[in-house]
């Protein structure tokens, strides 16, 4: 499943406005309509669908052209199906920490976890799945995420360092013992007026 908001007009129109669902018709042949509320609802419910392998496991990625503002409702979706830092390989966990320390966020974006912003920006894929579980006397869902091994993390890390370069360390000038002794000899015995002139 590819996560991507394709229709930008949703961002400026009222959410209840009906749109035509292209390339699909009802069994009777009539045109199907949907609203932005339907779109939000489908984002979650599609992942509850049992696939042909009788499994609830999904490969999730952000679309390459996704650059729009993330809607606030997406945070609730992320809490169930989104990635977590624990599944990242160590170099990518370090990159995530570095990104979090360097990336500045708008007020809107600051409500989202750093891993979500990081995953969106650098198109990090993961596998999300869920199973049924018994919780007391209730049938419940347990959500899991798994790392996708084929992702090229070196490319992601170098792309991040292009955007947020590592700070350049300035070499520390080493002072020899003779220089320190010479400085102390030159300063000792000077009046405060002479020390001000030296400074």
Automatic annotation (TrEMBL):
Superkingdom of this protein's organism: Eukaryota
Annotated spans, Disordered: 179-199
Start-end of Polar residues biased regions: 179-190
Protein name, per record: Uncharacterized protein
